[in-house]
Give the backbone structure.
Amino acid sequence: MLLTGTGFLKTYWDEGVEDVYSNVYGDVEVENVTPFHLFVPDLLEPELEKQLYVIHAKTVPILTAKALYPQYADKFVENCTSAKDILDDFKLNISGNNKPDSVLMLEMWLKPGAHSEFPKGGRILVVGDFVVAE
């Protein structure tokens, strides 16, 4: 385990989760995000709330990406090797012969006013080379 002194919880609504008791779809999900997978534009600003945007980068197995976004399934190409945490990234690069098995997913959250096309703020999701959600 690597300690950084900072951790992030990402809370979001997942429409794909089914409540087995009520057969209703959707539930609140909570995901632990390491600081090594978050990117901000101003590294000198210590307050996350003052950043114009935040990018959450992670790898997703290619089959998962194809299942989540079937309209792009035939276009997705493995462009990275899967990793669960920053230490996996380090260990995976030691041998140098790992075959790509995943696709990079970039989720960007914009504050209101950060971009003229998103005056109220917004979320952009890029999987591989495709914008799959705005």
Summary: The chain has a mean pLDDT of 83. The helical segments are 62-68, 86-95. The longest strand covers residues 8-18.
